[in-house]
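Our preliminary data section would be incomplete without showing what the modeling component actually yields. Below, a chain of 353 amino acids is followed by its predicted structure, encoded as tokens that our downstream tools consume directly.
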Amino acid sequence: MTKKNLCVLFGGCSSEHEVSCVSAATVVKALDKDKYDITLIGITKEGHWLYTDSVEKIEDGSWKKSNVRAVISPDTDHKIILSSNGNLIEERKIDVAFPVLHGLWGEDGTIQGLFEMAHLPYVGCGHLSSAVTMDKFFTKVIADSCGVAQAKYTAVKKYQLKNMDKVVERVESEREYPVFIKPSNAGSSTGVTKAHNREELINGLYKAAEIDAKILVEETITGREIECAVYGHDDNVFATGVGEILAAAEFYDYDAKYNNAESKTVLDPDIPAEKLEEIQKMAIKIFKACDGFGFSRVDFFLEKDTDRVVFNEINTIPGHTAISMYPMLMKRAGHEMKDYLEGLIEMAFERHE
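Predicted structure:
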């Protein structure tokens, strides 16, 4: 059997750089080495593309010391160019790319556009769906268009903060405290704050503006945080059972996700059967509405007292860390990581045909 030449990309310039490295190591370890000849390219926070030769170097961080630069050519000949000190070392053939990148410049359609320019098969959502799902504002526009219930929101642009009094007046006329303030483009809850009063609102707006020029101020939905895994493409899409997040903090921010051992995930939480079915149907609906392909994790709230299902967000390159919900949900549904990763790679070739 001829091995496929697979390139796994990880790291990246986003605030989720470290999470991406952990996810990539997990993915690479799960792949069948008899089927794939794997080339590893790490992208530093500064945007340098480096070749590394082992998953162990991803795990201990020593890949960042590599002196071998790596470039994926946009030429349709599908080559990775490796060089050191400007001198060519090697050109490697590549059949398919697997971006294990989270956040901006990896999950937002930018690198997917490079792959498409090169006519290179790649895993996951296309450049358009990656872009619109990374941008919370446009995701909300799509959710509104297909009748999916979600938190009410007020959109704010960074340039409008020059007249903060006017922005605050508009927000307070449309929303009641407490509110969540979110950069439109970010991941792992980076830059998200909760405001209980005007002072916290102003501080939260400035903090979000450090990350993105578009900001959302959302009503607070009090309820259980529920996540669902979606897998497949076109009419061959399924949703798994659900998991519940028990956040150790007031909300599931970056620190609560990755640094607080008190945060927990629960598989198959006690949810009425009809609500589980509603979540699964809504997850597939929003995945398809956003032109999803391959895999995504879709997050919801189950509102306290009403049990109303409220869409929160969709992530097109789900994390694969030890606490990540996507692989746990897929395994619970009977799909081992090795098998569904191989399925994702095969889908990449199918889309390219």
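The mean pLDDT is 93. The first strand starts at residue 4 and ends at 11. Preliminary results of this kind motivate Aim 1 of the renewal.
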